[in-house]
């Protein structure tokens, strides 16, 4: 039987009738799946977890992958003590610990009755009871006034002496480094638009026009751009990159009546820096601008542009993303759970191997050896299972599309076995994109195409700091203080990877 065409053929024979029925069924199945996906996006939690199948739990998966411990727990007392320890740890976790940096104000309440009603002597203190509550003190904006005395000799011949102004990010500008860092992070990390920040400042007794705040953001991005450029150079000089892209709406004066679409492209390394770039399109030209002359492992999703680049550049080795492959089967499992869950279970085994490697703290060579021993046999058995599945389902069904994605990406999906440094998926890069995804739900769009690069620069700094455990406000305040007097050769010292605060932040 021939594959159904875009429109059902005329029915003249029984064979043609079967073909029409198969076509209508495939169209209905795809429409039903799309409706369920839309409903899930609108109403359901965004979780990719699938309930464990009754015949294969996570514990059974672990037992099938790894040998049982050589010694069982010795006694019931040991087990009971472990249970009690877990309960105590849970109790401690429920009560939020107070940060050591929180200022503490102590108030002492003396009792009214200090004299004993029985003997008339004054009571002495035998202890105290402590309780706590948290209070909020509104932030404040400080007006930093700089006075520079002018000195001159009464003879009138020695000229006038005056101290030079300290270097500033904005010539004759109002913001100090701490205020500029605050406005920057409030927009790009807390996702508060500048208009709302203006209202917040008004409640604090100062007024900054929204256009003024926009000028501050432009200046901040301009000063930070050389740092991000140097970060990109160091990323591109390595041999492993993870890349992804996300759409963002742009107010384009050339597009009347609606927002245009732009793209934030992102490149990074696990536990390393992340660099964003803004481009108007999503084609090969933009991908080349992002990657430049990079040659090495390139981990990405199945987007065809990256495949075209790999064909043109033999130095690029495509590394697939098992999270994308798993996601497609999870989306399809409600339609055919009996067929999808066995594949999902096998992919889950691959992730359990990765979890075991992380928990054991394996070095890259050890993780590579573990994958060869445990993961490769699973992958060798998974490929024929996918082939058998593809025969049983319609090509345009959700399961058929999931199987086809794996076939098209199979060699790239296997490449993570080649080096223990490589991740099994591209989730770290997707996580790096999340701040921008949350942000565009609040500020809705980028105000102008020329402003896209500013967002990319600032997101690069903020996300890289968070990845490295650096407090972003402390970093930005220190860097904004040092940059005006810094030489080009000193820029590497303020990269997030090398940064050490010049002085304690206040």
What can you tell me about this protein's structure?
There is one protein chain. By secondary structure, the chain is an alpha/beta fold. Among the domains are: 177-234 and 448-494, no CATH class; 321-425, no CATH class. It is 49% helix and 7% strand.
Structural class based on helices, strands and sheet pairing = alpha/beta
Which stretches are low in confidence, meaning pLDDT under 50 for 5 or more residues running? 1-5, 69-79
- What's the pLDDT, averaged over the residues? 82
How many E-type strands? 7
Main β sheet profile: 5 strands, mixed
List the topology elements.
Elements: H1 14-43, H2 58-65, H3 76-94, E1 151-152, E2 160-161, H4 177-188, H5 194-203, H6 210-236, E3 240-250, E4 260-268, E5 274-279, H7 284-291, E6 297-299, H8 304-312, E7 317-319, H9 322-332, H10 337-360, H11 364-392, H12 398-414, H13 427-442, H14 452-467, H15 472-482
Helix pairs in contact: 2-10, 4-6, 4-15, 6-14, 9-10, 9-12, 10-11, 11-12
Task: List the defining traits of the structure above.
506 residues; alpha/beta; five-stranded mixed β-sheet; two-stranded antiparallel ribbon; 15 helices; 7 strands; 49% helix; 7% strand; extended; disordered N terminus
Give a short summary of the structure.
The chain has 506 residues and is an alpha/beta fold.
